[in-house]
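User: Please run a holo structure prediction.
Assistant: Happy to. Please share the sequence and the ligand.
User: Here you go; the ligand is guanine.
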Amino acid sequence: MTDEVTMTARIIDGKAIAAEVRAEVARACAELAKQGVTPGLATVLVGDDPASHVYVRSKRKACAEVGIKSWDHDLPAETSQDALLELVDKLNADDAVHGILVQIPLPDHVEEQTVLDAVAPTKDADGFHPYNLGRLLSGSPIVAPATPAGIQQLLLRSGVETSGAEVVIVGRSNIVGKPMGALLVQKAEGANSTVTICHTRTRNLAEHTRRADILIAAIGRAHAIAADMVKEGAVVIDVGMNRTEQGLVGDVDFDTVKEVASAITPVPGGVGPMTIAMLLSNVVSQTKRGLA
Ligand code: GUN
């Protein structure tokens, strides 16, 4: 006999928590409907990237389910930057549109930042506009990027203590890593963490990840986080969506890491559904602000 206890992590159910958020958004939409207001989201999708098509389709379907009207703008890959800017201007000026989402990545001939900057900050459904990112950094966010905002909700609603926690984020993208750090470092509920952001130039990645109470993997490489990179009892959040021959897998080697972690998000069914739920929540926030 041995005293050794093997622990298997609690699975953080992103689908269930996202359903909670979506129900709250649906109630907010019903309240707005009583005032004769239907929140509206315009989605702009350029080109044929199959993953982007899947994501945008899910976003549009989710809008319909909670009572948000959506307009689909599907444009060919050759669409010029000027044509795209013209469309964004038209949506900015349309009073029925409360939120605008330009799915990224955009084709190489388009300067992504120029297009994101053109979206009116008051209609920015993604929280990608520099004004909204600035509000986030200064501690007075209006809308926050949906994936990091969704992760914060996952942590809050599954009872993970972030205050004082060592959070290690792997990945420094503008849509996940950097805003994730900005959210969790705030002096606010569901935050107050000590944040480290690691990236491709980080020396000895595992030395950092092994210190994490909460490890957030947003790398974009299948199974990049192995069990020996994770502290016993850590909470592991997997942002990865990697299409492989084995199907959709995360950035975390789930089967081995779940034996070390105390809680872990699955792929699919973890972070992904939260991104969509928070997008819906952002549309409602922008709609309400527009009425105020
Ligand atoms: N591409 C990957 N994630 C996102 C997202 O949350 N919003 C937009 N607009 N594009 C993305």
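The CA atoms of residues 40 and 95 lie 9 Å apart.
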